[in-house]
Amino acid sequence: MWSPTEEEKYGVVICSFRGAVPQGLVLELGETVQILEKCEGWYRGVSIKKPNVKGIFPANYIHLKKAIVSNRGQYETVVPLEDSVVTEVTATLQEWAVLWKQLYVKHKVDLFYKLRHVMNELIDLRRQLLSGHLTQDQVREVKRHLTVRLDWGNEHLGLDLVPRKDFEVVDSDQISVSDLYKMHLSSRHSVQQSTSQVDTIRQRHGEACRMPVPHHFFLSLKSFTYNTIGEDTDVFFSLYDVREGKQISERFMVRLNKNGGPRNPEKIDRMCALFTDLSSKDMKRDLYIVAHVIRIGRMLLNDSKKGPPHLHYRRPYGCAVLSIMDVLQSISEIKEEKDFVLKVYTCNNENEWCQIHENIIRKSSTKYTAPSSNYGLIISLQLLRGDMEQIRRENPMIFNRGVSVTRKLGFPDVIMPGDIRNDLYLTLEKGDFERGGKSVQKNIEVTMYVLYADGEILKDCISLGSGEPSRSAYHSFVLYHNNSPRWGEIIKLPIPIDRFRGSHLRFEFRHCSTKDKGEKKLFGFAFTPLMRDDGTTLSDDIHELYVYKCDENSTFNNHALYLGLPCCKEDYNGCPNIPSSLIFQRSTKETFSVSTQLSSTKLTQNVDLLALLKWKAYPDRVMDILGRLRHVSGEEIVKFLQDILDTLFVVLDDNTEKYGLLVFQSLVFIINLLRDSKYFHFRPVMDTYIQKHFAGALAYKELIRCLKWYMDRSAELVRQDHIQEAMRALEYLFKFIVQSRILYSRATCGMEEEQFRSSIQELFQSIRFVLSLDSRSSETLIFTQAALLNSFPAIFDELLQMFTVQEVAEFVRGTLGSMPSTVHIGQSMDVVKLQSIARTVDSRLFSFSESRRILLPVVLHHIHLHLRQQKELLICSGILSSIFSIIKTSSLEGDVVEEVEMMVESLLDVLLQTLLTIMSKSQSQEAVRGQRCPQCTAEITGEYVSCLLSLLRQMSDTHFQHLLDNFQSKDELKEFLLKIFCVFRNLMKMSVFPRDWMVMRLLTSNIIVTTVQYLSSALHKNFTETDFDFKVWNSYFSLAVLFINQPSLQLENATPAKRKKILDKYGDMRVMMAYELFSMWQNLGEHKIHFIPGMIGPFLGVTLVPQPEVRNIMIPIFHDMMDWEQRKNGNFKQCYWITVQSDSWTKSGLPLMISATRTPTPFVCHWVEAELIDKLDSLVSEGKGDENYRELFSLLTQLFGPYPSLLEKIEQETWRETGISFVTSVTRLMERLLDYRDCMKGDETENKKIGCTVNLMNFYKSEINKEEMYIRYIHKLCDMHLQAENYTEAAFTLLLYCELLQWEDRPLREFLHYPSQSEWQRKEGLCRKIIHYFNKGKSWEFGIPLCRELAIQYESLYDYQSLSWIRKMEATYYDNIMEQQRLEPEFFRVGFYGRKFPFFLRNKEYVCRGHDYERLEAFQQRMLSEFPQAIAMQHPNHPDDSILQCDAQYLQIYAVTPIPDNIDVLQMDRVPDRIKSFYRVNNIRKFRYDRPFHKGPKDKENEFKSLWIERTTLTLTHSLPGISRWFEVERRELVEVSPLENAIQVVENKNQELRTLISQYQHKQMHGNINLLSMCLNGVIDAAVNGGIARYQEAFFDKDYIAKHPGDAEKITQLKELMQEQVHVLGVGLAVHEKFVHPEMRPLHKKLIDQFQMMRSSLYHELPGLDKLSPACSGTSTPRSNVLVSHGPMSPESIKLVHRHSPLNLLGSVRHSSSSLSSHTSSETGNLVILTDSSVGETAEDMYHMQASPSTSSLSSTHSAPSQMINSAPSSARVLVKGAGLTTLEAEALYLSTEQIQHGRQPCKLPHAAPTNVPHLCPGGTTSRGSPSLPDKYRHSREMMMLLPAHRDRPSSAMYPAAIMENGQPPNFQRALIQQMIGPCKPCSDPNLSVAEKGNFRSWRACVHDNS
Q1: How far apart are CA 614 and CA 1012, in angstroms?
Q2: CA distances in angstroms from 1736 to 1650, 1761, 1774, 1829, listed in the order given
Q3: Given CB 3.0 to 4.6 Å as the disulfide criterion, which of 1022, 1366, 1401, 1725 pairs with 1392?
Q4: How far apart are CA 487 and CA 1346, in angstroms?
Q5: Residue 511 pairs with which residues in a beta bridge?
Q6: pLDDT band at 353 (very low <50, low <70, confident <90, very high)
Q7: Using omega within 30 degrees of 0 as the cis cutoff, is the peptide bond preceding 1521 cis?
Q8: 1450/947 Cα distance (integer angstroms)
């Protein structure tokens, strides 16, 4: 049985479950589940990721976690009972995991690895947090690290910013909007901060940090591995400041034995010190850890003779340093010790021992010696922060190791009361001693003792360093043979305070002999008392002491003998009458210097301070002593603060009247001293003193009296420095007053309470008096008032100890109310006044609701004044933020209705006005300078927005009702509504809050929609009927539209988890606003017409939001709009500006919209459709809308919801037909717009973008007559063409706009990038630009008519300069046509089949104009790359419905042949081929392709009899080239060509080709090299001899055929005539060939003559007219009159070719396609096959198979032949030679000479084996280039091949080649060829050949050799 769970409610999946059981719930590892029921080891529940899917899963797959269950039952909610930071980390890691994988896919490798590292850190930190083994401080630190990493990752992944407080996510419902805004700011700031800046982050999170955080260095000596000394050593560690050149800490001393271990065995692993009390300032100093090593042993280390072994001396050995700055970063980041090795350097000269550390730091390497190894002192360091109590608490292990606390030489930043210290630091500086008659200098050792007044040596008062116990005597180290030693050794003297007075120091000097006895001989001494006669201690200075002579026999038992002597020069000056007959004589030439530094809280070196502390000893000097207190240094005062304060109050109690004012002044001086930043940290000392040590119970009376006396005199005095000082000390004066009164009241049980209260009230009257004075004339008074205002808020807490909250609030209100209300009293005073108010609001007093009700009016009054005049906005915003924060906090606990009401009345209107001003300034500043002024930064805008939102959020129904009722008139209400709507609109438009502040943006939207719901009723109530106001309603609708379209509310773009979170908290606010919008629209009634068409666009934008409910709500509004427009105007269809002139309609049939082109004249009417279409275009182009949206307007979709669909409503109306037409138009437009949008925003190819744009442009032109949109898309299309370098197409595109314009002077407005100008000027500019584009596209023929049109205009205006320019341009174009090279493009037919294609391509066929050099295979690859999902169809048949309607993409591609329209120019003889070439491939609208097939039984002997051609002609919608490189096929026609007709066309085409080529040589259009003619003649003659046209004779001249086809008699006659004509044309060709042939090529010519005779003879019997020889073969000729015209004996010069003017002839000669499907129908000039003997036996069908008809291979990938041939050898010849009689030498010569014709072209790439890419064979010897392959049975029967492409495939230089000359003579081809034959590698060395080409040449020549 399934039973509900009680405890097991929440768990984590610890093993993935596939759900392979009935009702199983699929779960992934790490998912969280909510458990509802359990049954025998199974749970039933839901995954948190998919809460709507319930299922069962195994219980042992789940790790249970504690959770809080609310609302138990069917709708219960479960919240895990864990740290909120852990929950956040878990959710964030799950979200990041998805994005992290995407980073890898997007190749963002750097971020990928960084994020992986951070995620691992988060997992590790989360594990630590869950372990439960951390202290509170460690938990806090781990949370800090977690949140820093979370924020970093969210920012880098573009996720939302998370506002936090104390590292936990804040609940926006629990805090004010102002606080939320500040948390967003601080969170954003913390993301940008380094993780090491802990203090900054903590302060930013609101932790006031008044006490400075001291730093401490923990140092531990691990070992001294540099143990070659062999003697005991003392190591002294200290901190050294390089810049100041002095030590800043005591020394830490470690005593080591000769093995490097501690001399005291108990010290093992306990040689550690804590350098304490380093301030933040100290941490920024250039500090070093310095270690001095002193050895204890012989005088000289390596000389055993120097001194006896039993005597040990302290001798300098070496030094090591470590820079704190270098290691600070590394030790700051870790929480444990880090090891460092310090090299110990030895000193080269002992005299410089005191400077060795400086030399090492400065790297003066000549003064020290580096160790021979890297070993030395191994130490570990750790940086600790906090006071000593905290350090002891957090690091108990350190103190368990017996750490030595090593203090600073001076005081720390703060000396707390009770922190008693009495240390004197003495530094042995230097000495200068006499040699004393010795030959060498002395080895001097100094011994020091501390002696009390009675001569007793004080025990344990000398410390060489922390870490070792103090001693009674000090022995200095000895410098060898040095009479002027410099020691620089610091000794600490911890002398008890009670022994300090009367004690003195004695220094004894001994010479340490190195002789055998090793005696230490005393030769002098010096001394100094520690305290002077006046009670002050030894000053912090260098003291040069007198040295007195003595010897070992001298006795110091009677210390009075020398204490009476002067110890130094100052002492000597004080007692000059010293007798000279004393025991001790001073050595005048010897001196000894020491320096001292006192760190004592009980002893002073200041006389005035000592006098004050002992004032009773000088009763007559008390006044003077009090006056001199000001001259005591601050350091001394803060050291003795408690003693001084005690003294002052004792003096005050002693004689109030006499000393009262002086004590007050002294107290003010001390209080203000603590205000100095240097001593600010001593304020806690003062606080502690007042609370715990202050005992002046009567002091309050005098303090109040003095304070009031000062204030009352402020109006009289000119100098008010002392008054201002008293005002600044107000806080602590009140603390003393209140504490004194408490002590008095406690002592007297509350006596004199009334007197105290009245005195305080009188004091406040004086305060008000000071503030009320007019200070504009007195600068000093301004400073007094400012000082008072600054200090005033600090006294509230003290007053609250003595008075009730209401009483204190009344005091404060009276005081603040006494300030002048005017804002113009001075800017500085304004600031001070507002700062005082701000501190009042931030004070504890303001947190009480009782005091707030009293204080709020006066505070709001001052803020209102400043906001109204736009002064001090930043401070005002801070005050308001604090108020709202307090009110929000209070509202959670109690009622704040009254306070909110006050704020609404005072602030709402002025807040709105302020925001409008700031926003307008912000926008204008950005527009003018691109930057904002300081008062208009985003931050201040955000502050005020958050304040306004805070106020609106606190307002309830009652507040809104009161607000709306309080407006005196509708005008006021209207002004208010306009303001608030405008502010809301600006909020959404300006993006005040950054994109990632999602919490802030959502809360803002929630407040806006709530506020609008309150205000909409007032709008409807007051401005609907007779008082309708368009402006307010329009503002409302605009706001609603902007609101719904906000990016932050588009939940479809959010992750599922985020969407659920938003919907749970706020719901879909778009739907809420949409309902509100619909409701208000319905309330408009007849006034709806005012918003048509103005709101059509905005409302349309709302319907584009992909939210079904919003769309269902909004669609009926469009019906309503149509209905109202119909009622008013009888039509809602679009209308344009119609002008009276007849030329307002252009030849394109479009109405000329003046919005784009003209100035309005008679009338205008904007209708629904026009506006709707305009807006739809702009919105969809911006990326809005989707496929579902299109269906909203379609007939097929039934919209769900409370409203019927648009069409359903339309069908009920009288205007049903126009309505349905309109909806259909919009739907069709949507289809095109969505295609356009998808193409533009995707990574689509230019072709798809251009096609899409053309489709949309044509729709605007032809279907909905939107000329302005049409023109816009013309320019978009032009820009795309230019980007793709389709200059001709760009020109044609721009021509569309040009044709809409007239040569008139009508003014045109500014439009797109065009300025305001006349129509004539715009048209002229367009013409020039179009001409320029035609020029770049080498389409000069299209540009010339425009040049002429411009010339006519210039001529009519007598603008001869422009006329000259355009005529020159025209002339240049003619030159370009004749001189520049142009390539003829290929054309391809493409079919797009299947529903997956974009709408504009779907199930349509197009013809495309290929790029230069682009052939079928390349084009096919390009199309397949543009449509990677498409499948290439392998047949040319029209697809059936299964393909047309399938959800796939099919491409059908094959090449087509253009059919030119302009055939006149192609018939003219003398027209150069360069000109004809243009007309063959331009202005083409018809194309064809042929497919061969057999009809009836196939004749095996001669298959030409049954071989038919299926010819398909395609007609396009527009001619190519045009506005696109491809156009749709408009019509297709299919005809069948009979075998006889086909034969006629083939022969006629070949005759035309021969005539053209011969004519070019006759008219000198081709010079010199006649290889093209040779090859053409060879191809025709050779083919005729070996079969060729003889097969036609067999097929069609047969009697049986003639009998069976009596209707073909005329065609048979025509074929015979063509054959006769071919013979005569060949004769003329041979005559021309004979004239131009090179001597070396004579053998070839002779063979041609012989073969021609064979050809004639073979045709003799069928064509008796050929019985006489052609002129090329004999000297006489009797030509047929209809073929050749001759006068007398024909010479080559006299021969002229006569064209046959039949259409078929022209058709064949005009265009020769590289990929035609029939060789018979598209044979090409020069593209021929020389076929020899074996071809006769090959069937005609096989020959057609060679063409690779479309049904077999036009789509196959083997169609690479044309591309390869053309790209590799565009003008070389491909010839099939087999038994043609050509020798190897001749064939090679023919190849090479043909190569040399083609200047600048690549040699032909010929394959080694017989290639598949072979021209197809024709009976007339012609070839067609559409065949990708030959059947296998022909593949090896061709032994040598060369390709010559058609004229149009060759550049112009190939069309009219210049002869290649060698030294002015024709090249000797034969010689060159012989050389090549002799040296087989010669051709391959041609530098113009590529490696592949050289190989091809070799294989071609090998073929020739084989054949020969």
Answers
A1: 76
A2: 19, 25, 21, 20
A3: 1401
A4: 103
A5: 444, 521
A6: very high
A7: yes
A8: 62
Neighbours of 453 (CB within 10 A): 14
Answer yes or no: is pLDDT of 785 > 70.
yes
CB within 8 Å of 725: residues ≥ 6 apart: 668, 669, 672
Q: Residue 1687 in 3-state DSSP?
A: coil
Q: CB-based contacts of 1578: which residues, under 8 Å, 6+ apart?
A: 1644, 1648, 1730, 1775, 1780
| Stretch among 637-646, 1102-1111, 1787-1796 having the lowest mean pLDDT | 1787-1796
Token match 């110091």: residue?
556
Going by C-alpha positions, the residue among 936, 914, 808 that lies closest to residue 863 is: 914
Q: What is the DSSP string of 1260-1322?
A: HHHTS--HHHHHHHHHHHHHHHHHTT-HHHHHHHHHHHHHH--SS--EE--BTTB-SEEHHHH
pLDDT at position 1748 is 35
Stated as kind and residue range, the H or E segment containing 1374 is helix 1360-1379
**CA-to-CA distance for 525 and 1149, rounded, in angstroms?**
124
843 φψ region: left (φ > 0), alpha (ψ -120 to 50), beta (else): beta
3-class secondary structure, 1634: helix
pTM (2 d.p.): 0.59
Copy the structure tokens of residue 1901: 């020549």
Mean pLDDT of the chain: 75
Which residue reads 């394959």 in tokens? 1807
**Per-residue model confidence as pLDDT tens digits over 915-949:** 888 888 776 665 444 444 444 467 788 888 999 99
For strands 54-58 and 62-65, give the pairing: unpaired
Q: How far apart are CA 179 and CA 201, in angstroms?
A: 17
Name the more confident of 1673 and 1179: 1179
Q: At residue 911, what is the residue type? A: L
Q: What is the pLDDT of residue 1264?
A: 61
The per-residue pLDDT for 316 is: 93
DSSP string for residues in 1765-1822: HHHH-TT--B---SSSS--HHHHHHHHHHHHHHSTT-PPP---SSPPS--PPP-TTSB
pLDDT mean over 1825-1836: 33
Give the count of beta carbons closer than 10 Å to the beta carbon of residue 1232.
23
- Cβ neighbors of 306 (< 8 A, separation 6 or more) are 298, 299, 300, 514
State the residue for tokens 């666009």: 1097
The helix or strand, by DSSP H or E, that contains position 511, with its residue range, turns out to be: strand 504-512
Check whether 1358 has a pLDDT greater than 90.
yes
pLDDT of 730-743, one tens digit each? 888 888 888 888 88
Between strands 1450-1459 and 1431-1432, the pairing is parallel
pLDDT score for 202: 34
Give CA 652 to chain center in angstroms.
69
Q: What is the mean pLDDT of residues 96-104?
A: 89
- The helix (H) or strand (E) run that includes residue 1108 is helix 1108-1129
Reported as a pLDDT band with limits 50, 70 and 90, residue 1182 is low
The residue that leads in pLDDT, 1002 or 1691, is 1002
Taking alpha carbons only, the member of 1220, 1224, 1200 closest to residue 1210 is 1220
Alpha carbon distance 1404, 1672 (integer Å) = 55
